[in-house]
Amino acid sequence: MSMNSVKLSPTKQLLIIGNGFDKHLGLKSLYVEYYLSLTDNERKNNIFTYLASNKNYNWADVEALLLKCLIIIKKLDAQTVKNYISAYKSDSKEQILSLLVSSNKSQKIMTILEEKELIKRVLKFFFLSSLIFPDSLLEFCQEPAHIFQKKLMDLMMDQVKNFESGFKDYLTNEIKNFPEATYNIKSQKFIDKLIKSGVYNTNEYCNFILSFNYTHLPNSTDFFNSRGGNNVHGTLLDNIILGIDHHDYQEFMEFTKTFRIMTELPQEPLKIYDNSIDIIKFYGHSLGEADYSYFVSLFDAFNIYNSDIVLKFYYDDFDCRSHKKEQVERVYKLINHYGETFDNKDHGQNLLHKLVLEKRIYVLKMEDDVWYS
Predict the structure, then answer these.
(1) Which of 11, 35, 115, 318 is the most exposed place for a label (fewest CB within 10 A)?
(2) Residue 359 reports pLDDT greater than 50
(3) From which domain of life does this come (predicted)?
């Protein structure tokens, strides 16, 4: 289906929105904005905000930081730690930290320097917050390795839930600080604008929304009915969750989004009742690797290789410069990743080329997405 073809029947669409949607409405919904709202003492109460106090450490992607922390914990061999500590009469914090750093090897997911710094700061956080006492670490390490690591993993899960609770309270207050009903009104209008963009004919029963935000979707708009809305990671009205992708890190199962959705969120079916979607639109989503599993599942469900579905990835310009190149790079990476999941490797490798030739994939600003008769 080309962009300039006339479609007499209503166009069926799936709109996928991320944090950029809330930012467009004026909501201070970034993790870094939450961090800036905290006092110095409050930042010390959670491992993620504590790590952010190191200005050289990029913590904006909390889920990527979580994965790095888990990898570090998995590498801490209790027996090795015990042997190093036993070799010294003093079990001072600095000696323990330096020993642990020197005993670890690098991982592909981070540089050696980054790993050393992160190991030091993760353990320092546990010490300073009294979750682990340096003078009792030797006793802590007497446990078998899997028990030692399990205790550290339990501490990390507590930190994840603590962060989620704090961020949920912050977002709730930010919405309350909007003038009465302003967020809902803005949300309704912008959803309709996104749905109507580049479409000649549609109605509220033909459109579905998959939101990766914690803010709730409006009950209805001119072109959307709440029966077709889904908040993937929970809403401010119940629980919210963050986590890692499940494909490459099964050993961290309890921290994966899939596991946490199944155990901590209301079990509701995906409200896409008609799989004959014509267009999938993306707005405000970073297309990060932590959410690749969702996109792979959707692309499989809609069979984008053999179907006529059009993919539209919207972007905004800001800071007085174009961001199209950055969005194209994200789309390129996502589609190529999806192609790697194909059994037919030739099809997987030429997927992006096929979509471009068939005029079924676009990276554009919303205001440039117009319908031509």
Answers:
(1) 318
(2) yes
(3) Bacteria
Question: Over the range 2-26, which residues count as b (16 or more CB within 10 Å of their CB) and which as e?
Answer: ebeeeeeebbbbbbbbbbbbbbbbe
Geometric angle at alpha carbon 159, from 102 and 210, rounded to 5°:
115
Taking the C-alpha atoms of residue 218 and residue 240, their distance in angstroms, rounded to an integer, is 18
Sheet order of strands, 361-364 included: 229-231, 207-211, 13-17, 279-283, 310-314, 361-364
Amino acid 96: pLDDT = 53
Taking the domains of the chain in order of start, what are their residue ranges?
Answer: 13-27+180-368, 33-174
For the record, the structure tokens of 227 come out as 């029966």
- The mean per-residue pLDDT over the stretch 182-198 comes to 90
What is the number of other CB atoms lying within 10 angstroms of the CB of residue 60?
12
Structure tokens at 45: 């109460």
**Tokens 């919904």, located at residue:** 29
Mean pLDDT of 289-303: 91
Q: What is the pTM of this model?
A: 0.84
Give residue-wise pLDDT tens across range 51-89: 887 655 555 688 888 998 898 888 776 555 555 455 444
